[in-house]
Amino acid sequence: MMEKYYWQKKLAKITDRLKKRGEFKRPSSNIDGELEFNIVNGFYIIRKLIENNKLTNKFISTNIKGFRYPFIDQKKLTPFNNHKWTEFYDLQNKQKAKFDIQFLCNLFVHSFYFIPCEIFVNEQINDLEHMDDSKFHELCKIYKRKYQQILFNSDDKKLEFLYEIDIDKIIEVFETVSLMDITKMSITYNVRTNKYDYKLEMPDEGEPTNKKLPKLDY
User: Fold this and answer.
1) pLDDT at 218
2) In 10 A of CB 44, how many CB atoms?
3) How far is CA 44 from CA 7, 28, 60, 102, 154, in A?
4) Among positive and negative, which fits the CA dihedral 87, 92, 95, 99?
5) What angle do CA 196, 199, 205 make, to 5 degrees?
6) 68 by DSSP, 3-state: which?
7) Residue of 12, 9, 45 lying closest to 171 (CA atoms)
8) Which of 56, 164, 168, 213 has the lowest tally of Cβ within 10 angstroms?
9) pLDDT (tens digit, 9 = 90+) per residue, 29-66?
10) Based on the number of CB atoms within 10 Å of its own CB, is 114 exposed (0-12), middle (13-18) or buried (19 or more)?
11) What phi and psi, each to the nearest 5 degrees, are found at residue 120?
């Protein structure tokens, strides 16, 4: 039988590393690789817990806000040109989107594109208007940055959209799972599917608990 708390402990460590993600002036493959390792493994843990009926139904049905960029139909994406990702998506057509938890798990575990997006640590610089490339590169030599969003999709979704999510929202999801206590469970046989349906819940509002869960952005 799967030991839920072992996996939650591992996820808590990943959450802590993401919260402490480093600042940099010059990105490196080590920084990129560690970020991808933590996020992909975090969503793998969540998918594993979902498949073993260890997370609440309410959490699984949660929708997380993000964005998406449409694929440009006239373009042909191949293994030989996939590094030119800016040419394949309409980055000027930013659309609001919502992702359920299983969608995020599947796309990150089977990711095709995983592209970290950076911001300046000094928030005032991020508010500068009309910053051209030359100005941006000059500021990069002086001020530190950190990764704040991820552009992502999977092999089966790459010809539809490139998606965007804020890393802080990923941290909220990971922290929620790492602290989740199941206090109620009911199992019902489903004649139509010939399977058992599980309903799992956390403490009702007002019921005492020693764990404070972060509030997800539905």
Assistant:
1) 43
2) 15
3) 10, 24, 14, 10, 14
4) positive
5) 175
6) strand
7) 12
8) 168
9) 899 999 999 999 999 999 999 999 899 888 999 999 99
10) middle
11) -75, 140
| Assigned token pair, 121 | 């640590």
Distance, in Å, from the CA atom of 41 to the CA atom of 15, rounded to the nearest integer, reads 11
DSSP reduced 3-state for 166 = strand
Helix 4-19 / helix 167-178 crossing angle, nearest 10 deg: 150
Match 């399977």 to its residue by tokens: 195
Q: What is the mean pLDDT of the chain?
A: 87
- pLDDT band of residue 9 (cuts 50, 70, 90) is very high
Cβ neighbours of residue 124 under 8 Å, at least 6 residues apart? none
Q: Which residue matches tokens 């991808």? A: 36
Round to the nearest angstrom and report the end-to-end CA distance of the chain: 32
User: Is residue 216 packed enough to be buried (19+ CB in 10 Å), middle (13-18) or exposed (0-12)?
Assistant: middle
15 phi/psi in degrees, rounded to 5 = -60, -45
Query: CA 71 to CA 113: how far, in whole Å?
Result: 13
Rounded Cα distance, 90 and 78, in Å: 17
Helix (H, G, I), strand (E, B) or coil at 39: helix
The closest of 97, 78, 102 to 151, measured between CA atoms, is 97
**Which among 57, 70, 54, 160 is positioned nearest to 101, based on CA atoms?**
57
